[in-house]
Design a protein that fits this description.
This protein is of the alpha+beta class. Helices cover about 45% and strands about 10% of the residues. It is built from 20 helices and seven strands. Strands 1, 2, 3, 4, 5, 6 and 7 form a seven-stranded antiparallel β-sheet that branches. Helix 6 packs parallel to helix 16 and helix 7 packs parallel to helix 17. The longest helix is centred in the N-terminal third of the chain and has 20 residues.
């Protein structure tokens, strides 16, 4: 369940050379590569942290310089991603997690897939502990916050993908660079489903529960550089505002996600057209671009022959799919992207929540029914969080449903505790702070 889309040697809709013969072939290819069918069994997760180098500052957890890329590469050694160490073997950590780096220096662990959420959490927790130890060898610290309240956005990675992304989003507003450089998430991945009907049910449920669970785990009220406004999740505000065509598919109208995702993806504007050769992925001088407003479908149809000089192949299509950022992304499995990075080890709770809510067709159906009245309220959830009484009630009901269907007693207690926290209207950060300080809230000044 790696987060990177895998391109199959053959998807039944491409020629031997990997060419795409028509729009219908491209849509069929997307359906095959983005939705892998089979009995749901596996779960995975990705964790992101902001990073700082040097002494802690009393003014804020991220009020310290971003690490030098050379220091990150030295600290990570054989685990360093090739984006910062081209000759690195890029080994996985002992628990199976892969280390990657985001544009602003955020560090990310992408787990291996496991058939039990408890095992996933144990392995990922061990890998996170080792990662912290590696980073500390060069005075680098991961910071468990979802939005950078202290530093202005600054892009460290000079790859052409990120230059193209910054240029494209910069023409829309300030949120693109903020998202790229100053936010961090907890992502959970689950299998797509046994067949198309099962995929539809699971996809629908993950979108329906999204606003309520976004609010339940929202903990990024401050993002330096964001326009004025009070938001429970500034991180999700950034995602929702940076590029609507790329981040907000019309899923409420989709009765068959496998087919609809392909149609939507082809009509999303191109972020960029890659240059030739592997070195272009790493080179500092390469510039990737695309004709403004042109979609992948335009490129496929020949409308960009003069500008691009060639038609796209399946590799170009797979790359285009990685430039789409909906709240739930189809990557072979279903990748839930709407949860803020959680304080400490709090990320284990949403892992258990999604594992439980996807545990059987009956639970999936009940979760969808509970969440239906709040489905689509993404902006309200990001803005008001648990302060909205209807969203809060929905979040509590979903968490209590999840607590009833977790795989272990420990997970049930953790999820029930989250439900109680939401019932009280408290954020994960407030709850974590309360547990760290034995004094009652009114005694803390």
């Amino acid at each position: 369940m790696a987060v990177t889309l895998e391109s199959p040697e053959s998807a039944g809709c491409a020629t031997e050379q990997g060419e795409l013969s028509s729009r219908a072939a491209a849509e069929a290819f997307i359906g095959g590569v983005c939705f892998k069918l089979g009995p749901p069994a596996l779960i995975g997760a990705e964790l992101e942290w902001l990073t700082v180098q040097g002494e802690c500052s009393a003014s804020g957890p991220s009020a310290a310089p971003r690490p030098q890329l050379s220091a990150l590469a030295d600290a990570l050694g054989p685990y360093a991603p090739r984006s910062i160490a081209p000759e690195s073997p890029a080994l996985t950590l002992p628990g199976g997690s892969r280390v990657t780096l985001e544009p602003g220096g955020q560090i990310e662990l992408s787990s291996a897939p496991y058939d039990a959420a408890a095992q996933l959490c144990d392995r990922l927790r061990d890998d996170a502990r080792l990662l912290r130890e590696l980073l500390e060898s060069r005075s680098i610290r991961p910071v468990s916050v979802a939005a950078d309240a202290d530093r202005r956005p600054k892009r460290l990675l000079r790859l052409p993908r990120y230059r193209a992304m910054e240029r494209s989003f910069g023409g829309i507003g300030p949120f693109g660079k903020l998202m790229m450089c100053n936010t961090a998430a907890t992502q959970v991945s689950v299998d797509a489903g046994a067949d198309r009907a099962d995929v539809t049910a699971r996809w629908t449920a993950l979108y329906a529960v999204g606003p309520a669970l976004l609010a339940a785990f929202a903990c990024s009220p401050v993002l330096r550089g964001a326009p004025p406004g009070t938001w429970a999740s500034q991180r999700m505000r950034a995602w929702l505002r940076l590029d609507n065509a790329r981040t907000r598919p019309p899923v409420l109208d989709w009765t068959d996600p496998v087919a609809a995702y392909g149609r939507w993806a082809l009509d999303v504007p191109l972020l960029c057209v890659r240059g030739p050769g592997e070195e272009a992925e790493r080179g500092d001088g390469a510039e990737w671009s695309a004709p403004p407003g042109a979609t992948f479908a335009d490129w496929l149809s020949g409308a960009l022959d003069d500008e691009v000089g060639r038609r796209p192949d399946t590799g170009d299509l797979v790359y285009h799919l990685t430039t789409l950022f909906p709240p739930v992304r189809a990557s072979g499995h279903l990748e839930v992207r709407y949860i803020d990075a959680q304080p400490g080890d709090g990320w284990t709770v949403p892992v258990h929540v999604f594992d439980a809510l996807m545990s059987s067709p009956e639970v999936v159906a009940e979760a969808s029914s509970i969440a239906a009245p709040q489905a689509g309220r993404w902006v309200d959830a990001a803005r008001y969080g648990l302060a909205d009484p209807d969203i809060r009630a929905c979040a509590v009901a979903l968490l209590r449903l999840a607590a009833e269907h977790t795989a272990t007693d420990d997970a049930a207690r953790a999820v029930e505790s989250a439900a109680e926290r939401c019932h009280r209207g408290r954020t994960p950060t407030e709850d974590a702070t309360e547990h760290l300080d034995p004094r009652p809230p009114e005694a803390v000044t």
